[in-house]
Design goal:
The protein is mainly beta. Helices cover 4% and strands 57% of the residues. It contains one helix and ten strands, in the order E-E-E-E-E-E-H-E-E-E-E. Strands 1, 2, 3, 8 and 9 form a five-stranded antiparallel beta sheet that branches. A five-stranded antiparallel beta sheet has the order 4-5-6-7-10.
């Protein structure tokens, strides 16, 4: 898949965009803080995706995954929890990226 960006010290995020001619472009990440990362496919000065992985263990016993993008390319995203190896995969496109809101993405291991 693509270069991984770590969130919350235990979750890797990677993405691949596919252009209309079938070429695939792996994302590169820019970590904003422990819960937020930006990803880009072509130029680091042009981030195209925003990821948030929130600790909502006290709310519903899960970690939440949110993402939004400014692209019309087909995109496949994988978020993997390193301790268990559990991976959640999300896809969008081609066409306007549909925001992702998964409030049951990963169960809290200590819940």
């Amino acid at each position: 898949m693509s270069a991984h960006t770590m969130l919350r010290g235990a979750y890797s995020v990677s993405a691949v965009a596919t252009t209309p001619d079938g070429h695939q472009h792996e994302s590169q990440g820019i970590t904003v803080n422990e819960s937020v990362a930006l990803q880009y496919f072509f130029d680091k000065d042009n981030p195209e995706m925003l990821f948030k992985l929130l600790d909502a263990c006290a709310v519903n016993g899960h970690r939440w995954v949110f993402m939004a993008a400014i692209t019309d390319l087909a995109v496949r995203v994988a978020v993997t929890e390193s301790q268990t190896g559990t991976t959640r995969t999300y896809e969008s496109g081609p066409g306007p990226f549909q925001p992702i809101s998964d409030v049951e993405a990963f169960p809290c291991l200590d819940a």
